[in-house]
């Protein structure tokens, strides 16, 4: 998604040229290209699919909407299998229209995980709960801190449900370093983005290029290392300004910034 | 600030007519009107000045800037005395340019409070640390949770340094209800605003009218009650759309919404 201006073939070619060994994919471009074809493309390029983004949106109260969400998540798990990744990232979902009850919404996520985790486990897929910045709590994700994500994950076996550590969402939280240490083997994904201001309207597409903002990226990478994480490190930037640039040039810059600020 | 389209005389007249017994003032309009004159205006109308907003911005590293900030806060304390309020609200300040060290910035706030709290205490003014939503952590306030604000306040006597509970900033935080209970007599101010989306660019002026958003305002009012708070309840909305409306009409609506959603 960092370079969504690139097609999947352009993306895989650029990754290979830059020595980037894996790529996290999003469902929409994968579905548009075809999951089997995308899997073959990435595999033939010698790249790993690090994660699939995203399942989730599990907070519906209405039984039909809830059933739809569960079916969609099972489909996402199947797509993850096809792509050859072991990790599906979950963005939990916001408050249903008219609701003001965050704790109840979080419990509905736990209920849904109870149905999805065994389905995923049987297929070798891990579910990674991503806490999103509190500015998304009402409309996108009622799980706002790494502690909250862990409290959900820890109700399930460590090999089935874990968390995403994304610097953009947790960098401000003085409790997050301890949560990273506690997460340990439940860290299923580690994502980097910097925090830059002013935020754009809607706040979704304002993630900063590595090194441009307030986040001590290397300190977070070291914390995740110390917690025992040895998996891939993803850079996930949603940014309208970056998306207007040449995709290969941007990806090259991201790789340079990664080395400069996080490695 | 909720009705900043009104002059101070218009504001006091409208408050009296609506039966609103007090008003929180901001330094800029008070300075423009003259602190002595503003004090007389509000006093003659029979209104209380609930709080003065705001001091703070105490995170500078540069010694000259730090000295300037301390002098400005002493001036704010003096203005609070003139206005006849007992509470100065502090917005702590963001990261200095180029810094990525949140813990160090928070310690500089504690150092500055060590200088300001006795000065304020001698003048009968209480300092109220306001945690701001984490989306303001880099550029406005490195104190992002009620727990963090309390950890700062609790280093000082309970009659000198306390906290502001503002629903807009803490509504998403599952630890905040327990922090409200723990804050008890350190709750120096209670402010209401609702959380509405999408947020506008820059995110500062998107506070929602009471009842329009995701916050269970009455539940927070009841928590603050239960913690023993008996002080004034302020409604603080920064909202470009609301500011374009007729100020008296808006203030009337705010009073109605307060009764409907919080009382």
Can you identify the CATH class of chain A? Alpha Beta
Proportion in helices of chain A: 40-55%
- The number of helices of chain A is 11
Largest sheet of chain A: 7 strands, parallel
Order of helices and strands of chain A: HEHHEHEHEHEHHEEEHEHH
Q: What strand line-up does the widest sheet of chain A have?
A: 1-2-3-4-5-6-9
Q: Outline the low-pLDDT stretches of chain A.
A: none
- Looking at the structure, the CATH topology of chain A is TIM Barrel
Described by the principal axes of the CA atoms, the overall outline of chain A is globular
Query: What is the percentage of strand-forming residues of chain A?
Result: 15-25%
TL;DR of this structure?
The structure is a homodimer of 263-residue chains. Chain A has helices at residues 8-18, 27-33, 35-44, 63-83, 102-122, 146-153, 167-170, 176-183, 217-226, 240-243, 247-261, and strands spanning 22-26, 48-56, 87-91, 126-129, 161-166, 187-192, 194-195, 207-208, 233-235.
